[in-house]
Amino acid sequence: MEFRSQDSSFGASAVFQVVSGIPTTTLASQLPRRERWVLLLVDGKRSVADLARLTQRSELDVASMLARFLRWGYIELVHTAEFIP
């Protein structure tokens, strides 16, 4: 499954990390609880599908949150499984 945000698209295998230099706890404290939980689980290793499973949310719900975080500059794409050599 592929998810599209306003300016990017990524699949359920996409992996994100918090942008370096930004304390995750500072960002998380500004978010609603369910979004905070997702952001705190973003570690550069877990995929969208992993985050959905861990939070018991749909992949679409998690992808929507991640797309917002990406737009706000909180996170960056690390890789997608489709492009791993």
Fold and architecture overview:
The protein is α+β, with helices and mostly antiparallel strands and 85 residues long. It has one domain (2-83). The protein has four helices and four strands, in the order βββααααβ. It has helices at 24-28, 33-41, 48-55, 59-72, and strands at 2-4, 9-11, 15-18, 75-79. It has a two-stranded antiparallel sheet with strand order 1-2. Strand 1 and strand 2 (9-11) form a beta hairpin.
Shape category? globular
Total number of strands: 4
Which percent bin holds the helix content?
A: 40-55%
Gyration radius over CA:
12 Å
State the end-to-end distance: 20 Å
Q: Name the average pLDDT.
A: 84
Strand content: 15-25%
Structural class: alpha+beta
- Whole-number count of domains: 1
Strand order of the largest sheet: 1-2
Provide tags for this entry.
85 residues, alpha+beta, single chain, 4 strands, two-stranded antiparallel ribbon, 4 helices
Topology:
Elements: E1 2-4, E2 9-11, E3 15-18, H1 24-28, H2 33-41, H3 48-55, H4 59-72, E4 75-79
Helix pairs in contact: 3-4
Short summary:
The protein has 85 residues and is an alpha+beta fold. 42% of the residues lie in helices and 18% in strands.
